[in-house]
Amino acid sequence: MRKKIAAGNWKMNKTLDEGKTLTSSLVNMLSSKLPGNAEVVLFPPFTHLTSIKEFIQDRSNISLGAQNCSEHDSGAYTGEVSVEMLKSIGAQYVIIGHSERREYFGESGPQLAQKVSKAITAGLTPIFCCGESLDVRETGNHEKFVFDQIEEGLFHLSLEEVLRVVIAYEPIWAIGTGKTATSKQVQEMHLSIRLMLLDQYESIASETIPILYGGSVKPDNAQELFAQADVDGGLVGGASLLAQDFVDIANSF
Ligand code: PGA
């Protein structure tokens, strides 16, 4: 069975104290065995990682991740954080290629491919994001668009390496807009992504790589989304900032 994941991307929200309060509520409310043996992964801002780690270290089903990493190992890159630094503070995951990073920080396909490789080499699990804008969806080219993103970001990996990746399909038009893709649209894209993986790699890749959906996942739509055959969980933004909502989402498997 594929791994099920409820990932909470806090983005640039919460002071340290607010983040601690949120995490402590989550730890108290989340059962030590989630439905479907799901894992919860928290993605606080860099500044909070070490402190948040302390709250979750006794919990085997709650992990920690960073929202970004550098494609460089070390050196004169002011403001950047390397995969080895993340590894050294106990992060297990890193989000790579979120549409906000692509759009506002100009992150390119080749740069993301490098970040993915660095993360895997350091032993972190990359959550590689892909997804089309509304314009692309309306022209009907969304599958090709997502295919190109995945090809650029992941297809340089060997089979052994790609098996360490998690993919998140996040249509940009559904992020933070309250407009969720329908479960049919999500399932269709996730299945297409599996077929891309089958075409490029062996069936073990298409069968075992978790594919998450992101874009206005809420307690009232999570169950239907997660029930789709090829949806293995969610990358949750806004609703991950509210303890009860995020717990309800994690209990939706
Ligand atoms: P949202 O964000 O849940 O607020 O739409 C999802 C994301 O950007 O990962």
* Total DSSP helices: 12
Approximate strand percentage: 5-15%
Average of the residue pLDDT scores? 96
Question: Structural class of the secondary structure composition?
Answer: alpha/beta
Main sheet: strand order: 1-2-3-4-5-6-7-8
Bound molecules: 2-phosphoglycolic acid
Report what the structure shows.
The chain is of the alpha/beta class. It has twelve helices and eight strands. The protein has helices at 16-29, 49-56, 83-88, 99-104, 109-122, 134-139, 142-154, 159-162, 183-200, 203-208, 219-226, 243-250; strands at residues 5-9, 39-43, 62-66, 93-96, 125-130, 166-169, 211-214, 233-236. Strands 1-2-3-4-5-6-7-8 form an eight-stranded parallel beta barrel, surrounded by six helices. The protein is globular. The two termini are 13 Å apart. 45% of the residues are buried. The structure holds 2-phosphoglycolic acid. 2-phosphoglycolic acid (PGA) is lined by residues 9, 170, 175-176, 214-217, 235-239. Residues 9, 170, 175-176, 214-217, 235-239 line the site of 2-phosphoglycolic acid.
